[in-house]
Design goal:
By secondary structure, the protein is α/β, with parallel strands linked by helices. It is 46% helix and 18% strand. The N terminus is likely disordered.
Amino acid sequence: MKDTRTARTLGRRGRRRRRVRAALAVLAAVVVVAAGLGGLVVWQNTYELREEPVVIRQAGRTLHGVLALPVRGKGPFPLVVFVHGDGPVDATHDTFYRPMWEAFARSGYASLSWNKPGVGGAPGDWLDQSMDDRAAEAADAIAWARGRPDVDGARIGLWGASQAGWVLPGIAAQDRRIRFVIAVSPAVNWHRQGRYNLLAELRRDGASDEEVATALRRRETGLELLGRGASYEEYVHALGDPDGMTAARWRFVTKNHTADASADLPALRGIPVLLVLAGHDVNVDTAETEAAYRRLLPGPALRVAHYPDATHALVRRALEDSSPRLTLTALCAPRALFAEGFLADQARFLTTVETEGARP
């Protein structure tokens, strides 16, 4: 009996050891997979460029930025100056810019970007800025860059997205040495863009006719308040629920709601312009934008690139429609976030700039 009990005990111990070994094997496999995924994430988020944190002090202004340089060489390099869209954007746009910086660096270009005021410890508040303020800020950054021995001051151009559509032409109007412009999903008229965005989002969300009519009435009330310079308190009193409109945001809109790029767009005539448009843009009326650019920038210097499967940010629509896929791609394959051809087409545009003369 004792031998039988001993055998059973040993059998149970053997099974427990086998289960422990199996559990350890599974754990080891998980660790290996996790390490592999971690290595993949690190590798995919390592870029072929040199990043230098910079503090730009120019004309009494202080900007906290990043200068991204090609891996090899001392320059002087041609430079792409990044102009952000709306919102509290830091210099890398939460790393979103880095695949573009890498593509530009491989083409021999440096890139310069900076935190918006109030973002990442930078002084100021971006919500206090007008579009003219933003253009002046960029002009200061360009003047600073022209003082660096590793930057070719005669070959500096602009990259800007969305709200930057109201800033890029203003920079070019001030600085006749701007060499090229890449305009990604740029807006033209603040009021028309706002109406388009409102209706596009309502359609996307399946709003009823009554909901659409109510939203348009609220919008008209808001425009009337803006037109007479009403205070934020008047806005809340008239519309009730502010629906995300803070006092600071109302101040920003009050400063900028009359923005229209049409007046300054002719300043881009005679230099290479790449206009990038997405097929699923609910923020900007791309048809209106293209018509305005073609009308105001006639001639071969304007190129228009369409990406039918892209959203406003030039991200592939299938990814933006799925938060898990978007997050996984951003972590494991950030270069694959963008619409097919977007990175390569911009780099190709920069190579053509090198063969063309400066603006007259």
